[in-house]
Structures are given as structure tokens and as C-alpha cells.
User: What shape does this take?
Amino acid sequence: MPANFNYYELDGTPLDGYHVLAALLPTPYTNDAASAPIWNRDLLISEPKLTSEPKQVVTYEINPKAIWYDGTPITWEDFYWQWKSSNGTNKAYQIASSNGYEDIENVEKGKDTCEVVVTFKHKYADWTNVFNPFYPASTNKDPKIFNEGWKDRPLTTAGPFKLDSIDATSKTITLVRNEKWWGDRAKLDEHVLKLAVEEGAELWRPAKILEASLPEENGSAESVIRVERDGRTVEVRAGWMVDASGRSAIVARRRGWLHPLEEHPTSAAWARFRGVTDLDSHAISGDPDSEFGGYSISSRRLVSFRVNLNA
Assistant: This one.
């Protein structure tokens, strides 16, 4: 269990805490499965601009929709106070390291509050890892809040998830979707994928399945999958094979198991709503005599309903 949820504070650097914060806090850059930096298309509206002469300058354009959980917009001031609190010049801040921030000469407002201009003292190669992550100016302005405010729990979120609960006994931290998140809802899949790789799973991307056969098809005791990756064909054998190809349904289609369900002609539509019941409350709404037949399930996150296509 993290001793402090401020990643920059002296006790906040353990990796388990960073895994939690990666789902809660903004960062201009993330890393793909190969650890290459990729700019954050949810936080920023364009790729950061880097100039090297006469000094190294990075300009960020923040998405105007980006907000902290209390509704405060994310602005250049959040970058500014992350630098001021973490560059080591004010000893009241108990920082773990000033790496990257001590190399910055200034952080300024650009043409508006959404543009951030960061000037480095010299050429700094690892600039994509600076502000990864960053915290709100409201908590970084005060050294006491910086040092102690994040000890018990995260104070806010600006990511796809928010804190639900912390169980110190079982050492379990539970996150749920942030209903105020403005960005891509697919963050969960990428986050789980990243954690799987960090725990030792081997990720092949891109890769194309050429053939998948079960033991009764190939005459062996194992399932066999042939995959094209990096310009070559690789054969993988396993006692168990899980077809997680989604709608592609590779195994089901090749074995003729996939058939349209003619006796149940339904469709689904999905939308996001605010100010309605949480999905987990099991609330059911809708008039049984209405065109939707009383099948509406409401939540902050989604609404699904059944429509009779023959009507």
C-alpha cells in the first residue's frame, strides 16, 4: 500500500503507487508496449512542439475539455506549480528527486491558459518524461499539502478512473470509472494490458493470426496457433487456447459455430448520460407498455435498451 499518493514526495515513489496514479493523473506522454513515448491525445489537442535553438523549448496545447474532478480546468498553471514544487529550490517541499524539473528554466503561459511553454536551461533528452504525471496547482502551491495531503488517499483525479475505496487490511485499492472523464473510454483495456506486460506477459503488436487449430483438428495434445509477426511466421503451442478475438470470432467462424440468431432479432444502442442512476445500483427504468418494453437500464456510464426490429 502506498505510503503517499504524491509520486514526487519522498515516500511516494514505489511502483505500486505509480500504477494507481497512472489511472488517475494526467501526463503529456505515455508509453506504448515497447516503452516508446506517445503523446496523450486525451490531454493534448496536438503533438507537443519541440524546438532546440537557441534553447530547448517545448510547447503543449491542452485539450480545453480537460478538467480536474472538481470541474477546475487543467491549465498552464498546473505545469508551472509542478515545476516550482519539484525543482528543488524550495526546501519546504520534501521531494524524492528533482530530475528533469531542475533542468527547466521557466514555465510560462502561451497564447491562452491552455498553451504551456516550457523552456529548458540546456538540451534535455528525456523531456517526454517530465510532468509524468502532474498534480493540480491547488495542491502543489502549499508545501504542507504537497508533503502530507496525499498520504491517506488521492485527493482528486483527471484520468479515466477515480478512487472508490481503500482497504488497508486486504491492501486493496479499488478504482471505478470517472464519470467526468472527457476522453477515450478504452483506457481500461490499455491500462490492463500495460499491467500485464509489467507482470511478465509477452505482447506481440502488430501480429496477425494465420491459423488456429484445436487438438482434435491437428492430431496432437495441444492447440496450435500460427502467427505472423515481424515479417516471419511463428508457431505457438499450448494446452489451452482462449479465443479473445471478439467479434472476429476466429475459432468459431472457422469451425462453423457462428450463426445469426434469427429468432431473436435485436439490436443495441449505447449513449452516455449524466445525473442518472449508477449502473451498480441495479435500478431498472422504463414503462413496460412503452416502445422500449421496459428494458432500459440507466447509469452514469451507459444506457442500453432493446428494440424490436420487426415492429
